[in-house]
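Lecture 7 notes: from sequence to structure.
We start with the chain below.
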Amino acid sequence: MEPNTFRTILKTGKSAYTDRGSRFLGFAFSIDNKLQFKERLGAIMKLHPKASHFCYAYRVSYDGLIWRCSDNGEPAGVAGKPLLGQLDSAGLSAAAVVVVRYFGGTLLGVPGLIQAYRTAAKLSIENATQGDKPIVKLGWIHYDYTQEHPIHRLIQQNNISIITVDKGLFPKMQVAIPLCNYTLALESMAAIPTLQWMEDV
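Predicted structure tokens for the same chain:
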């Protein structure tokens, strides 16, 4: 992994694992925030309305400091922590794994459940496409319409990605600036009259 990058999932991975009649379906995917995770989890739950459990783990942002895991009604510690452990073993950030269980009628016991959830998570992560993404700083550029041309030149020269544009009375755009270009981008912004930069915190 290069400096100023982090490892994440580029394309969703899926898996299926069966133990004594219980079926475990794994899904590994990237997330930008907690809201996006909730939306993805909701979509998976709609696809599997008859499943008995939806266990998960995620780490948000490139540094992975914001995280959560859930056993979703299974015995404490048999699902959420093993799933988080698989994300960590793969060195993934801004990523999540969900394992859906269809109960097969036979109790697996704590060791069996840990093994099943860990295996389904591991396989889904292995089946996902992984890669490095640049660490970025998010924020808003506030500008005057007369400065559109130099601003778009600044964006192109510094490899800045435009996320959203608000062309109201006081135009602004949300952008993502690669960390490796951040200092130069700020210097370029300072040279443009009327431009104001507000970093997201």
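Points to note: DSSP finds five helices and eleven strands in the chain. The chain has a mean pLDDT of 94.
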